[in-house]
Amino acid sequence: MSLLKYESQIREPLIGGEKNYHQITEDIISPIEMKPSRLWYIGFFISLGLLLFGAYSVYREVTYGIGQWNLNKTIGWGWDITNFVWWVGIGHAGTLISAILLLFRQGWRTGVNRAAEAMTIFAVMCAGQFPIWHMGRVWMAFFVLPYPNSRGPLWVNFNSPLLWDVFAISTYFTVSLLFWYSGLIPDMATVRDRAKTKLRKLLYGVASFGWTGSTKHWQRHESLSLVLAGLSTPLVLSVHTIVSFDFATSVIPGWHTTIFPPYFVAGAVFSGFAMVQTLLIVVRKVMGLQDYITLGHIEAMNKIIVLTGSIVGCAYLTELFIAWYGQNPYEWYAFSQNRANLFSPYGWSYWLMMFCNVVSPQLFWSSKLRRNITVTFFMSIIVNIGMWYERFVIIVTSIYRDFLPSSWSTYYSPTIWEIGFYLGTFGLFFTCFFLFAKYFPVVAVAEVKSILKTTGENYKAKMTETDKMDAEKFYIEEVEHAH
Amino acid sequence: MAGGIKKFVVGSFDDEAVLFPAVKNVRKAGYKIHDVYTPFPIHGLDHAMGLRETSLHTAGFIFAATGTTTALSCISWIFTKDWPLNIGGKPNFALPAWIPITFELTVLFSAVGMVLTFCYLCQLSPFIKKHHFHARATDDLFVMAIECTDKTNDAELQSFLEKAGAKEVNVQVAETGWWIGRYDKEQKLYREEKGY
Which end of chain A is more exposed for a tag (fewer CB within 10 A), N or C? Predict the structure, then answer.
């Protein structure tokens, strides 16, 4: 192809090693053709165990009611909604990588987008569990759907943020799934065409929808991906905005702030990237994908972590300042006493959040630490803990002391069944992720191939010769090529 | 589209830099390219083959507009005509509060509609069996299939493809059906293009 397609030498290669198209197929697809390793079985069964424990916890809750979760009149939202917001937030990184970075033409997204999008889908599945089971009488869950019914018809309240959430989360899940799967079809066809056994041929044949790789199909596929990316970009921003409206449209001190939508979105991307790091650092090691998920990819994601972490930090400080500046005694009490006072019942959680989300990511200003896998792995866990505490702080510290001091709930701690439910969603998430890593191409094969000749290490090496070529000769060759 | 058995001359290339001039030469020589199968999207190949632009995004827009209208008309009918609720004395026609749901339905309709249209146009669905000209077309080969007509001399065409840089050339017979896809209506002849 045209020599001008080569990317600048200054940029780090996105695909390491000596690669050609077939080698890429081989590297990415052969791990899913082998028998699962012992490690995979161990991980899978631990996840499955957690999932079963979660299922039992949910069974307890459905049988005996929300009281199983130590919630009371004052603290009506505890771990449950904290976990909901946390999981939804984690999903956001996948869409950011697959949609927003596609629109920005960031080549590095191709190495990580497939796994990140899968993570999004599983995280949204986990998130959805919490509001559903929190309904208590879960067999009436269909009441949230607007349809002509025999109860009046009694319609849902379209003016309520909780209903907006129903639409936002279900749309987000559907669109993410479609986006992910439409990208997966060509890669499933690659797996199908390499399949040796009859069963694999059948299953991957079904999964690949009869994809042939026709030029016309690729043209439509490109158009589809671009429009879906264009739709997902405002969608992902809207989802966490609407989640933040659950709080921001209320009159609870600490919740009714206009800063919530951008602050929640930044926090979501922040925690999502941390989860992507946690998963991919393990995946690249176990599946030997270091050439595709390079240190450069990890560094790029760490840059986003330090950026969004700082935005979140800025939001915390703004919120605190406005609470004081606004001169509303209830608002200021919520911030100065319920949160910032280290010696109040939940003060420790506020400072833990501050440390994990604002202070610790600042390490990533150093490029040496950004490129250090161990540091990145630990940091990703710290950030996820911090972001969980952010939601806990927002929810619990705002409501445990309400407007009536006689009903202040001094200390709320979860029961084993509430924790079990949370662990259960981890089980669900990792069970799905283990299955995904075993049966699906974890890196987008076709997309990586399309950037090989511009960003592959061996192709970049050839570029130096081109650089040496004098300008006139270079031009003549180009013109010759064009005609 | 009439079914029937058709003959194709199939040439496989291993480099897109060779494929581009080959596509051009084949079309210049007056052969009809049935399709080119590639393992990943190659930018500009659709233009080189003379395919027209897709209008899938227009379908996306129409679905999106349907979503917006559905949401707004349903909610306003429900809240102003069918069952007006008094919520703190606020107006029944509360347009700003309906924006989130309207937006979500716009996106939902557009995405679902576009994916279904895409699958319909490309005839993609589970349990569909298509003719694959080369198993490595999804791995590392760029496979050009040229339809033979009564006048085509396939021996000549095969050597033509070999000269154009094809690594592997053969003749295949495939049953054409609605699934195989034909783009002769889409393709312009080479000499109809600008700059010829």
Answer: C
Q: Does a structural domain hold residue A364?
A: yes
Chains A, B: CB contacts within 8 A come to 197
Q: CATH says B4-53+138-192 is which class? A: alpha beta
Residue A49 included in any domain: yes
pLDDT one-digit tens code per residue, A413-437: 889 999 999 999 999 999 999 999 9
Owning domain of residue A75 = 14-140+157-458
DSSP assignments along B68-111, one per residue: HHHHHHHHHIIIIII----STT--S--HHHHHHHHHHHHHHHHH
Q: What is the CATH number of the domain that holds A72?
A: 1.20.1630.10
CA distance B155 to A274: 59
Q: Residue B125 and residue A245: Cβ atoms within 8 Å? A: no
pLDDT digit string, tens, across residues A20-32: 888 888 888 888 8
CB–CB of A158 and B101 under 8 A?
Answer: yes
Structure confidence at residue A1 (pLDDT): 35
Domain count, chain A: 1
Q: Does A216 touch chain B (CB under 8 A)?
A: yes
Residue A463 placed within a domain: no
Domain boundaries, chain B: 4-53+138-192, 56-121
Give the CA-trace dihedral at A456, A93, A265, A85, to 10 degrees.
-170
Mean pLDDT per 10-residue segment, chain A (483 residues): 51 82 88 87 94 95 88 85 93 86 83 90 94 90 88 86 93 94 93 88 89 90 93 92 92 89 92 92 88 90 93 93 92 91 91 93 92 93 94 90 83 88 95 92 89 79 60 58 56
| Nearest-by-CA chain B residue for A482 | B21
Instruction: Return the residue of B nearest to A182 by Cα.
Output: B115
